Amino acid sequence: MTIAITVVDAFTDLPFAGNPAAVCILPRPAPDAWMRDVAREMNLSETAFLHRMGDGFSLRWFTPTVEIDLCGHATLASAHVLWRQSYLPPHAVARFHTRSGLLTATSTPDRIYLDFPATVVVAAEAPPVLLSSLGISAASWVGRNQFDYLVEVATEAEVRRLTPDHSRLAALPVRGVIVTSRAEAGSPFDFVSRFFAPGSGVAEDPVTGSAHCALAPYWGGKLGRDTMIGYQASARGGTVYVEPRGDRVLLGGQAVTVLRGTLV
């Protein structure tokens, strides 16, 4: 049996930018070990595996080393594939049954919107290794949610020039670390960020939708805004449109198919 696999660059309208995800649509559930092997073979930050389930699709996400509970860019990539390859009609809502509950995606002429749970951060004491591993002498604020640490620094320039010690960051008992600041004056963006998850097999994730589930309520509260634009300042870079809505967050972005292949 052969299975189609598609690589999509998410949170960008340009090929070879944003965050690449592999999307594998299966005829039936697959063994966990096989999915882990495929994700390791693809060697992208996430590979998404889907099969039809009830009124939607079962969706699971794997890094090259672990299964994760929530992933934005691979969900956006999955919705893109479902519409572009006619698994769903163009204006149908994509419904995903996941380890983080029901997630949905809708398409507009400009972008795809994901309806995700907010993962609010609360103030937390920074463990000694956190700031030193990032190469930060002082943080404006440190918080944590069920997945990650969030560290605010003073300037966008500081976010952009980070060169973390990934081996030391990997020792932290979290999925990853979000570093963020307000965007510099005159920028088209409201805030910038980067995301490091070496303990989950991803040294730096190019664009992290799930991190924006924390960034949206955090910056919405600080800026007094209910619509914002975030830029993830990795080498590839990507734009995430966010709308905090109570215990949910809308994440908006574009996607580009860059490769179609067959698993044999």
Distance between the termini: 7 Å
Can you give the mean pLDDT?
Answer: 97
Low-confidence stretches: none
Tally the structural domains. 2
The CATH architecture of the largest domain: Roll
* CATH domain class of the largest domain: Alpha Beta
Mind telling me the CATH superfamily name of the largest domain? Answer: Diaminopimelate Epimerase, Chain A, domain 1
Strand content: 35-45%
Class based on secondary structure composition and strand pairing:
alpha+beta
Shape: globular
User: Level of helix content?
Assistant: 10-25%
Rg estimate, integer Å: 18 Å
Description:
It is a single chain. The protein is an alpha+beta fold and 264 residues long. It folds into 2 domains: 3-106 and 255-263, Diaminopimelate Epimerase, Chain A, domain 1 (Roll), CATH 3.10.310.10; 122-246, Diaminopimelate Epimerase, Chain A, domain 1 (Roll), CATH 3.10.310.10. Helices cover 19% and strands 41% of the residues. It contains 6 helices and 18 strands. It has helices at residues 32-42, 73-84, 128-134, 156-160, 166-169, 212-223; strands at 3-10, 19-25, 46-53, 56-62, 67-68, 94-98, 101-107, 112-117, 122-123, 141-144, 148-152, 176-182, 191-197, 202-205, 228-232, 238-245, 248-253, 255-263. It has an 18-stranded mixed sheet that branches. Strand 2, helix 1 and strand 3 (46-53) form a beta-alpha-beta unit. The chain is globular and about 55 Å long. The termini are close together. The model has no long low-confidence stretch (mean pLDDT 97).
